[in-house]
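Summary for the lay section of the report: proteins are chains of building blocks that fold into shapes. Here we show the chain for M23 family metallopeptidase and then a coded description of the shape we predicted for it.
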Amino acid sequence: MLFPLKFLPKESYKEAPRHFGARRSKGKRKHAGCDLYAPVGTPIFAVANGVVLDFYEFYLESWALEVDHGDFVARYGEVKKTLPAGVKKGAKIFAGQHIANVGVLQGLKLSMLHFEMYAGTAKGALTQKGNPPYQRRSDLMDPTPYLDAAQMFGATVFNPCVFLPGMSKASFGFTAGMGLYPE
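The coded shape description reads as follows.
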């Protein structure tokens, strides 16, 4: 898996209030993703090969892009309303492809990529207000270990991906003959 930004944010996505499971709405719900703080307009890249499932208004006038990456579904949230050419519902995307840009959160002095992951084993909308404590679909996953193991995009020294249980090399854009893993 690739990291969705070209840099690691200064503010850790493993600390409050940015981490998965952080308290939200005065403790009424938990944070369903990891927030990667970045300036408005920062390019966001596909973490793996996939197909765009949907694109819709998300939070504080920002948008969300849902992508089926094969072994998991990702929601790239709090992005700009305008997507790069060719990125639309039903489009195939490739690991490392520019798929969105960090958007503006109206009323807040923050901008970020809100990154969520789902196992892809449940059906229906990702946000499900009646499903505490996260108010998300039942197959929600903690993205932290996947982000920790992700290869940094554009790194000058190859940093091999760590493939977590249940994930295949092919779903991350690695194919036979690329020389990135033993055949």
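Put simply, here is one thing we learned. The chain has a mean pLDDT of 87.
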